[in-house]
Amino acid sequence: MRNIFLNILLIISLSIFYTSVFAKQMDTSKTPLTEAINLYIQASKLDIESPERKDMLTKAVTILEQHIEKNPKSMEAHRKLIGVLILQKHYSKAVRVMQSAITLSPEDPKLFIGLAFLYEHSRNYEFASHMLGQALKLDPDNKMAKDYKVHIKNKIKLLDEMTGHQQNPHSSASPHAKMNTNKPTSLIAPGLQKN
Fold first, then answer.
1. What is the tens place of the pLDDT at every residue in 136-174?
2. What pTM, to 2 d.p., does this model score?
3. Residue in 126, 117, 120 with CA at minimum distance from that of residue 182
């Protein structure tokens, strides 16, 4: 199951990297997106706890948020911002950006898989499972979504076994302290709403 995590992280990282390579080949002028990409690339080479890395990623977030504010339909900026937020481990904020990206491209199963990844890291496993179901509705043969959904279901089952709880489909109680097991009714998991 570690491979699923690595595949998702690889997809997000590659989308940022290849966009940066393409941007450098196509345009040598300094745009906000290329500036954010360069900060991301430089930061990714530094030690995880480095203050310089943290500063670079914070600057990249600021640049990307400003770009999105001016260009709210820029899917490229949304994807890059999500990648930077994942590097920062700001999963709740990345969830909100991913939700916004989904409104721009609701037929893209990769976005739902990415949202599932973020929900998993926020310990909202039922929402992760639901998002994978959405991805499979869009692309029923998507192997990554199928495998990842099995992984999430196994994680839920293991947690149930470890805590001695079995989910009662007629109960609205949440057996896991940090896990919402109620059936999702939206893209927003409890605790991740904007305040």
1. 999 999 999 999 999 999 999 998 888 876 554 444 443
2. 0.71
3. 126
